[in-house]
Design a protein that fits this description.
The protein is an alpha+beta fold. The chain has one domain. The chain is 53% helix and 15% strand. It is built from seven helices and seven strands, in the order βαβααβββαααββα. The longest helix has 26 residues. The radius of gyration is 19 Å and the shape is elongated. It starts with a strand and ends with a helix.
């Protein structure tokens, strides 16, 4: 595993090698700003899913977060404790991606880092489609679906935790976009590989040949 402060670049020589060996590139957005813009609908969808989970197992209202309509006043405060929790949520989110990468500790093709657009985990190991789907969905399912259920059952689902859970859901919008691409663009019984920010797939039988 390698730690980087920027995402790995596409290696054009490796790209030509993969194409020559029957790997098929997925048509996906590569510009970070464009990716975020395309992911906005998933921010809304993820938030609605989490609000539904919260309402099913607890309560959810804007008044819990000190928000009212019409607003009586606008007060902006910076809580260092909350900022720390947000940072920890980002770290845990990325670690949940990482731990599902097989042999990530010994892999020199797996990267974790932090950029201006947020944290990221990327692996250039050859993995199955199912494994990639698990890696992609793990933070959203764990932190924004299962965690609120567990905290609610334990009676410790506080407004701050609800806000963090909702924030994780919104931050998982790019993961949701990636998951949709895996479902719609990649056939079953395939393996995938990353070359920087580009993703390629190949049927398992061909990979073993």
């Amino acid at each position: 595993m390698k730690i980087k402060n920027k995402t790995p670049k596409v290696d054009e020589q490796k790209h030509r090698h993969l194409i020559a060996n029957s790997w098929t590139p997925i048509r996906e957005p590569e510009n970070p700003v464009w990716i975020i813009l395309i992911s906005i609908p998933f921010m809304v969808l993820n938030a609605l899913v989490v609000i539904g989970v919260l309402k099913l197992f607890s309560t959810f209202s804007l008044s819990e977060f000190g928000i009212s309509f019409p607003p009586e006043s606008i007060v902006i405060t910076v809580n260092l404790g909350v900022l720390f929790l947000i940072l920890m949520m980002i770290v845990v989110h990325e670690l949940l991606h990482l731990v599902f990468v097989p042999g990530f500790m010994k892999s020199n093709k797996t990267f974790i880092g932090l950029t201006w657009f947020g944290g990221y985990v990327m692996t250039e190991e050859v993995l199955s489609r199912g494994r990639f789907m698990l890696i992609t969905a793990a933070p959203f399912v764990t932190l924004s679906v299962l965690l609120p259920i567990v905290l609610s059952l334990l009676g410790i689902l506080t407004p701050v935790m609800k806000a963090l859970i909702l924030l994780n859901a919104i931050a998982s919008s790019v993961d949701a976009l990636s998951f949709l691409l895996l479902v719609t663009k990649v056939p079953r019984n395939t393996v995938l590989i990353h070359n920087g920010t580009k993703t390629y797939w190949k049927y398992k039988i061909e990979q073993q040949a």
